[in-house]
């Protein structure tokens, strides 16, 4: 099976990877729906919403502060590293991620579409200005805008919020033109990201899913490589090198 995927990869021009929190699992970052994904018995869906933030911005910021304290200590794993390598190896390799942890960039990926934003950016709730913020821990919770003093929010997409349309249409355009799409470490539940692989399938692209368990997408893909993203991608790249 790996040989067939390699053969397809070798003959492809445009290659897309869509990643979810499963690619950061081997770096020690809890996934969203995994068993250790809870914080103070809250589920992500309860905190990552505009309603939760307007009700209790301090609580929501304490959750993001906790995640930032974890993420800042974590390093990219082989999954992130191979994907960064493939961006250099294949002229038309593009990475679309649902993750906000910034580990793809830390591994060296430059062409990254962050569909759900980035935990290291904050946005002024009054004027919409976006800032980088790497304070760990945050100096004040909730943090306030350095320019106007209004509440800052994480520059991420919450449940019930629309994604950045330009990012989404860029991702759809790339996906409808690709010959092969890897869907890695995502439960394929959260919309609209979960619909993206179907755009590739509809255009006749080869879709390869890499996950430690099956998902609602698995029955539709061309190849399902069961296992850890870091291990499988490392294997794929090793075989690729032995042929290239
Ligand atoms: C939208 C940023 C239009 C924040 C995230 C009711 C009201 C409003 C909306 C909805 C609704 N019902 C449904 C919706 C749509 C909703 C949605 O899809 N809900 C789901 C729960 C059904 N979507 C939205 O709201 C989106 N916006 O639709 O706007 C709209 C507007 C108004 C009203 C209606 C509609 C916005 C969605 C974005 C939410 N923000 N993150 C933050 O991070 O704090 S989503 C969050 O989930 C993360 O980004 C995460 O990446 C993403 C997806 O989860 P996964 O990445 O797949 O992670 P998960 O834990 O689920 O799975 C991990 C996978 O990895 C597993 O399969 C596991 O087996 C695998 N794995 C684990 N270890 C490994 C591994 N695989 C390989 N190797 C390993 N080692």
Question: What labels would you give this structure?
Answer:
6-stranded parallel beta sheet, alpha/beta, 244 residues, 3-stranded antiparallel beta sheet, single chain, 9 strands, 10 helices
Structural commentary:
The protein has ten helices and nine strands. It has helices at 2-11, 22-25, 44-47, 50-55, 57-71, 78-89, 103-106, 165-177, 196-202, 229-243, and strands at residues 14-19, 92-97, 112-114, 117-124, 130-132, 152-156, 180-184, 206-211, 223-226. The longest helix is centred in the first third of the chain and has 15 residues, at 57-71. A six-stranded parallel β-sheet has the order 3-2-1-7-8-9, sandwiched between helices. The chain has a three-stranded antiparallel β-sheet with strand order 5-4-6, with helices on one face. The two termini are 18 Å apart. It folds into two domains: 2-28 and 76-116 and 163-243, 3-Layer(aba) Sandwich (Rossmann fold), CATH 3.40.50; 34-73 and 126-156, SIR2/SIRT2 'Small Domain'. The protein is α/β, with parallel strands linked by helices. The site of ligand BV8 has 36 residues, from α2 and β8.
- The appropriate CATH architecture of the largest domain is 3-Layer(aba) Sandwich
Element order, helices and strands? Answer: HEHHHHHEHEEEEHEHEEH
Structural class given helices, strands, pairing?
A: alpha/beta
Largest sheet: 6 strands, parallel
Task: Kindly state the number of beta strands.
Answer: 9
Query: CATH class of the largest domain, anyone?
Result: Alpha Beta
Bound molecules: ligand BV8
The CATH topology of the largest domain is Rossmann fold
Helix % is: 25-40%
Give unreliable regions as ranges.
none
> What separation lies between the terminal Cα atoms?
18 Å
CA-atom Rg in angstroms = 18 Å
State the domain count: 2
- State which percent range the strand residues make up: 15-25%
**Principal-axis shape:** elongated
Summed over residues and divided by their number, the pLDDT gives a mean of 95
């Amino acid at each position: 099976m790996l040989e067939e995927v390699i053969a397809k990869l070798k003959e492809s021009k445009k290659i897309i990877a869509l990643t979810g929190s499963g690619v950061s699992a081997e770096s020690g970052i809890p996934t969203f729906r995994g068993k250790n994904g809870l914080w103070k018995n809250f589920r992500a869906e309860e905190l990552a919403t505009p309603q939760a933030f307007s009700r209790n911005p301090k609580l929501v910021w304490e959750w993001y502060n906790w995640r930032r304290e974890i993420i800042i200590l974590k390093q990219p794993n082989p999954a992130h590293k191979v994907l960064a390598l493939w961006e250099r190896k294949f002229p038309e390799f593009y990475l679309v991620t649902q993750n906000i942890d910034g580990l793809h960039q830390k591994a060296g990926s430059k062409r990254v579409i962050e569909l759900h934003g980035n935990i290291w950016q904050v946005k002024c709730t009054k004027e919409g200005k976006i800032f980088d913020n790497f304070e760990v821990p945050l100096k004040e919770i909730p943090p306030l805008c350095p320019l106007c003093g209004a509440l800052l929010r994480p520059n991420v997409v919450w449940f019930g919020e629309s994604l950045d349309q330009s990012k989404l249409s860029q991702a759809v355009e790339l996906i409808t033109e690709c010959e092969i799409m890897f869907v890695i470490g995502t439960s394929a539940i959260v919309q609209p990201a979960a619909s993206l692989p179907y755009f590739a399938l509809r255009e006749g692209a080869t879709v390869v899913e890499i996950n430690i368990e099956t998902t609602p997408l698995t029955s539709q893909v061309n190849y399902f490589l069961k296992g850890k993203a870091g291990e499988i991608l490392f294997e794929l790249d090793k075989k690729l090198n032995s042929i290239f």
